[in-house]
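In the lab's daily routine, each protein ends up as an entry in a very long ledger. A line of letters takes care of the sequence, but it says nothing directly about the fold. The fold becomes a row of whole numbers, each drawn from a learned catalogue of backbone shapes. The protein below has been through that process, and both of its lines are reproduced in full:
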Amino acid sequence: MSESTRIRAPELPDELEWFNTDGSVTLASQRGKVVLLDFWTYCCINCMHVLPDLRYLENKYPESLTVIGVHSPKFENERVGAQLQKAINRYHIRHPVANDPSFQLWRAYGIKAWPSIIFIDPEGYIVGVLRGEGRRRQLDELIARHLEEAEAKGVLRPSPMPVVPQPEPEAQLSFPGKVLATRAHLYIADSGRNRVLEAHHDGKIRRVFGSGTAGMLDGAESAAMFDNPQGMVIVGDFLYVADTGNHAIRRIHLKSGEVMTLAGTGRQGRYGADSYREPTEAELNSPWDLAYDEGNLYIAMAGQHQVWRMNLNHLAIERYAGSGREDIVDGPLDSSCFAQPSGLAVHEGHLYVVDSETSSVRDINLNQKVVSTMVGKGLFDFGDRSGVGREARLQHPLGISVDTERNALWIADTYNSKIKRIDIQTHEVSNFKFGFTLNEPGGVSLFRNKLFIANTNEHQVVVLDLQSRVAEVVNVRE
């Protein structure tokens, strides 16, 4: 390509709101290095999958590569700087991030979808755009080649990019994702610390599963390792855990405290197969929640926009519902479509799914093997509105719990920071008001009249008495 046909990367505008840095960052100041502009939105599972690849490349090229996150938000809640800061901390992002709520940079660079990475060479010219996830090797090869060319030309100017994080306050929990309340215990996915806690209802910790360091290791209690654990379900003497960051299903023997891997390889799979006879060879993709019914463990496979099923008697694991296309489509299991399913609950032959990217609640009739939509309309239809069925609007819900006494579903309407109630019979959605401020609650679990809520962004578990409507923070402690 001749000098005249090369395209100079448009400069970053001054008015952007910046994170992880003392001031604004310009492309001119990064001349002499490869620059990657990562266009992302923090709700998006595919964007989350890109982050480990970027972290790998940043560690490999610490002075000759600059990664800049360009946050182009999908949801209203994501436009708020304080919420973006929480996401940056939750995902352990260690590069500058610019908030682009008006999509100014998105349009300037002709971006069409999340995630997209713009590759800029050391002379400040656009090499191209890489769309989607799974680009680590391609990016690595491109970076190495362009750095070599820049060195040969004498234009390479390595320099570290200083990062100024805004850490979270010290707390007993770190971004807890899901909770599970039983008669005797409260289980907490302490997701930000890569642990699962077994506590009493008053918050007194009884046992800790996981060392606190991200990894995948079987063993007894705190000798084991998890990576961003999320949904949990108890079957008999076992606690099953969706170990999201490890793309695995783990099992904790509650009597012995032993943690073992039940399914998954520890690596993200991408449409490897629809079924596996050997579950530890199964290529899973960000399992986010679990539910159990009649010998089957159901898995919200958020990264693949599907629901999977594992038979706990013979341990085969298979795709159960969803074609894999990210959408909201009802009908037979195989042709139905989901969009980042993130919460599951079973009740009387129905598997209820909170489908976060379509802000919907779906109903899988386990007997008729048909998917229908209770609440929700499309990938870009969201809001905060009560009403019946598809008239109502949610905003990126993540949690769900069944209330058999009231014949209702309790929903963690995450990006509205509210708790919603859905009547199973009429599909009426109502806002359950109580005097407590939530911040992106990720999970809910009902025991009798107590609704336990993972108040994720406040590093808390909250217990709400459904009769008195009084809510208080559970004092989680050693």
